[in-house]
Design a protein that fits this description.
The chain is mainly α. It is built from 4 helices and 2 strands; from the N terminus they run H-H-H-E-E-H. The chain is globular and about 25 Å long.
């Protein structure tokens, strides 16, 4: 099975948040650590938030947290958030 880059990045984000439980991580922090642009992270977080995998915290010290404890989340949840697009056939 081929994992598309959005899925790979979503899993990397989820793993990063799992390593920092109970602490909101900013997109700037995550982007610097994972080498992903902040604007791309925001796009990914929009989908992860919509699917109930992460929540955002506003204000100073804000950022993103996992909704559930890491041991209750499967990698499949992050992958399912970004279904593979079918290629158009000519």
């Amino acid at each position: 099975m081929q994992i598309i880059s959005r899925n790979r990045h979503a899993i990397m984000i989820m793993l990063y948040l799992a390593r920092h439980p109970g602490r909101a991580a900013s997109t700037t922090e995550i982007g610097a650590e994972l080498g992903i642009s902040v604007s791309y992270l925001e796009q990914l977080f929009t989908v992860l938030r919509r699917d109930g995998l992460v929540r955002s915290v506003r204000g100073p010290g804000g950022g993103y947290l996992l909704v559930k404890p890491a041991d209750e989340i499967t990698g499949g949840g992050a992958v399912c958030a970004f279904p593979q697009r079918r290629r158009r056939q000519a």
